[in-house]
Write a structure and sequence with these properties.
The chain is mainly β. It is built from 2 helices and 26 strands.
Length: 396
Amino acid sequence: MSIFKQIAFILAVIILSFLVGYAISQAWTEPTTTPPGNNVSAPVNISTTAQTKQGALQVTADFTANRLLDTSDNSYYVDPANTGYAGLFAGNVGIGTVTPNNRIQVTDLINFDNSIFGTFLGNEAGKGATGDYNTAVGYKALHHNTTGVYNTALGSYALYDDTTGSFNAALGHMTLQFNTTGNYNTALGDMALQHNTTGVYNTALGLQAGENITTGSRNIIIGYSIDAQSATGSSQLSIGNLIFAAGGFGTGTTVGTGNVGIGTTSPQTKLDVAGAIKIGTQDTCNFGTEGAIRYNSVRNKFEGCNGVVWENIESMTDPWAKTCSQSGATSLVLTAAESTCASYCSDVGGTYDRVECNGTASYQNQYTSYNWHTCTGSGSCTTTTVCKPPYTCYCK
């Protein structure tokens, strides 16, 4: 090689080395502090060495991982690959919200609210609820609740309009749907008590049971599609539109004072039957069954229990009655007759009830505690009325 070629080669090598060194010096930035501080992070790579990225990591394509760790506590993680790890995120998970208040909260779908002790499952169930201890399961159940507490709504639109009503239980589609401020209502069955708004203490069992009630209270409606006789009335009982009661419901151990009707919506007595009654038979007649009526199919007779024996109703007598014939021709005034009967009743272990004057004189009277009841003769019946013998004493 000539001397000129050697010189040219050496110059080329020198120039190339200079250019490469300059390029390297421009691409590398010297740390501004003493190592290891402020070291330049290594690029993310596929090695098995763990790496930490302090800034945000943006991925524009699919992102896959066997598990995602919580770097502050690696016992909590998500395990999408189902590799058998049992951990979960240590914090709360929110979908549609950046401030989940429980382990998992899905806006307008799932909300286990620790702040008000509520449970809401379903699209917009309990959407705006702020009252405590409410439970709503179903599409828009308890949707408008604000401050009402201790409500249970199971079914789409159950307690939908409830705002401040409390202690209600609605089980079924549209049960208590339009209730707003009514309290202590129980509805079981689709659309039961659907139109109740402010009524309280109502109970309805059955599909559409009591759905017409609006403001009435303390009603009990049982049966399929059974309405209350009055949408605004209170203390109404209807079982299958056959058995009715009006007023006088008891609470706790207090016995009700109302009347019961069969076939009539306005019973006038404790039991008012619009129609005939078929009476069966029984053997027992004692103090506990006194006043009972039976039909004796052997004798074909209606019989009543007088507290001792069964007797034909048309010929019943008082088992404590005693006929006292006055000796002599002189009749007793009523007061004397009563005194005589009172002594007799005491002797037989009873108490004086009344005396009947059954003599053949013009006065045939019945008296109870000095008050006259009937007088078949002429004149006035008074405490001094003569009681002709024989007279009958009645004890109880």
